[in-house]
C-alpha cells in the first residue's frame, strides 16, 4: 500500500456511497507530503514518455499537477472553469458536467499555451464519471496535441470514468483506486 492509499484510508470520509471527502489533505487543506508523493509516483510511471507539458483543471488538480510538473521539469497549464477578464485572445473550450456541483461549466485553455507540438500529461484529483477528463482531452484534441497519459490521484473505480478512458485507449494511471464507498466504508482495490 502506498502512502497516499494510507492517507485516504486514515483521513478520507465516505460521505455517501458515491462521494469521498478528502478536504483535510487534498481539496481544501493541502498536505505537502501527500502531494510530494503524488508527484513522485506520477514521475515514476510517466518519466519515459516524451511529455513536454502538463494540463490540469482548476482548482484541486493544481497541487498534484504542480508537484508532477516539478518532478518532470515541464510547465503546467491550468484549464480554467471560468473565463476571467484577464484571459484575452482565442481559446479552446469544452463543456463539462460537474459530478460534485451538478452543473455544467466551460473548460477553457488559451490557444497561446497549447498547440499541435505538445505532448501532454493530463492530471486531475478525482476520476468519477470521466466528464472532467473528457473535457481536458477535448481541449487537447482541439489543439492537435498528443495525449501521452492521464494521471489521477483518486479513482472511484466503481463509476464509469476509468472503463470509458480505458476503452478509448488512453494510458490512465491512478494512484489510489477506490473499489467501494458503501456503508460509509472506504474499500480500496486489491485490499
Ligand atoms: P468526473 O468528471 O470524472 O465525473 O468527476 C471528476 C471531478 O469531480 C473531479 O475533478 C473532482 O473535482 C470531482 N469529484 C468527483 N467525485 C468526487 C468525490 O467523490 N470527491 C471529491 N472530493 N471530488 C469529486
Low-confidence stretches: none
Strand content: 25-35%
What quaternary form is this?
single chain
Number of helices: 6
Helical proportion?
25-40%
Mean pLDDT: 95
Instruction: List ligands, each type once.
Output: guanosine-5'-monophosphate
Strand runs, count? 10
Rg, rounded, reads: 16 Å
Distance separating the two termini? 9 Å
Q: Structural class of the helix and strand makeup?
A: alpha/beta
How do the strands of the widest beta sheet line up side by side?
A: 4-3-7-8-9-10
Q: What is the H/E order?
A: HEEHHEHEEEEHEHEE
Question: What general outline do the C-alpha atoms trace?
Answer: globular
Please summarize the sheet with the most strands: 6 strands, mixed
Describe the structure.
The chain is of the alpha/beta class and 191 residues long. Helices cover 31% and strands 30% of the residues. The protein has six helices and ten strands; from the N terminus they run αββααβαββββαβαββ. A six-stranded mixed beta sheet has the order 4-3-7-8-9-10, sandwiched between helices. Strands 1-2 form a two-stranded antiparallel sheet. α3 crosses α4. The model has no long low-confidence stretch (mean pLDDT 95). Bound molecules: guanosine-5'-monophosphate. Guanosine-5'-monophosphate binds at residues 19-20, 22, 27, 57, 60, 99-100, 124-133, 156, 161.
Question: Can you give keywords for this protein?
Answer:
single chain; 191 residues; six-stranded mixed beta sheet; two-stranded antiparallel ribbon; 31% helix; 30% strand; binds guanosine-5'-monophosphate
Topology, element by element:
Layout: H1 3-11, E1 13-14, E2 20-21, H2 23-27, H3 32-46, E3 53-57, H4 62-72, E4 76-79, E5 91-97, E6 104-110, E7 119-127, H5 131-143, E8 146-156, H6 161-167, E9 172-180, E10 187-188
Parallel strand pairs: 3-4, 3-7, 7-8, 8-9
Antiparallel strand pairs: 1-2, 5-6, 9-10
The protein binds guanosine-5'-monophosphate (5GP).
The site of guanosine-5'-monophosphate has 20 residues, from strand 7 and helix 5.
